[in-house]
């Protein structure tokens, strides 16, 4: 089965629609959503409704820190992110907020683990910035492949049976074979707010039979997404950064 895995959509309808179009054109058969459906972007209602429809049709979804912040004042964020969350709270109805609050922190599916941040302490929202961080996540699970997001920059880590770590940034549209003799941590880029210098929306495709993963990018209508942010009175930096990919 060909999985399309998305993370950190952040209320960006234009980016998510572009990713879905590319994923479907490439033959994606099932969707996996790694959280942070809301925050930053100006279309949280549409994104959450779309996620709810996908889950009802069999998609996997987990909770991100921005999703949790909608229903919990205990989550601390920077000033601009906090403004976006408070605005988002006023846009979502009870059913949408309940959907976010009831999402699991992680999902085990066969020999794959799906989580927003990382597997060792998913509720603490740690970023995977290095092989040390990746090793902590990999040690915490027997899964052959763990998929996560949160940091908005793509990377691929692996650990051998002797705990030797490797890491690299995969090239777009170049399949990588995830060998069975190693554990893998696939860190996705962001759909709605990439921070790796490439403004195109990011997601991955994973073939469960061949164990090949492909990191994909989808150009989208950034001007419209940015305009929606500005028109709704959200901090302009949240709009400006979209075209910069940071």
TrEMBL record:
<dbReference type="Pfam" id="PF12850">
    <property type="entry name" value="Metallophos_2"/>
</dbReference>
<feature type="domain" description="Calcineurin-like phosphoesterase">
    <location>
        <begin position="1"/>
        <end position="209"/>
    </location>
</feature>
<dbReference type="InterPro" id="IPR050126">
    <property type="entry name" value="Ap4A_hydrolase"/>
</dbReference>
<dbReference type="GO" id="GO:0016791">
    <property type="term" value="F:phosphatase activity"/>
</dbReference>
<dbReference type="GO" id="GO:0005737">
    <property type="term" value="C:cytoplasm"/>
</dbReference>
<dbReference type="InterPro" id="IPR024654">
    <property type="entry name" value="Calcineurin-like_PHP_lpxH"/>
</dbReference>
<protein>
    <submittedName>
        <fullName>Metallophosphoesterase</fullName>
    </submittedName>
</protein>
<dbReference type="InterPro" id="IPR029052">
    <property type="entry name" value="Metallo-depent_PP-like"/>
</dbReference>
<dbReference type="InterPro" id="IPR011152">
    <property type="entry name" value="Pesterase_MJ0912"/>
</dbReference>
<comment type="similarity">
    <text>Belongs to the metallophosphoesterase superfamily. YfcE family.</text>
</comment>
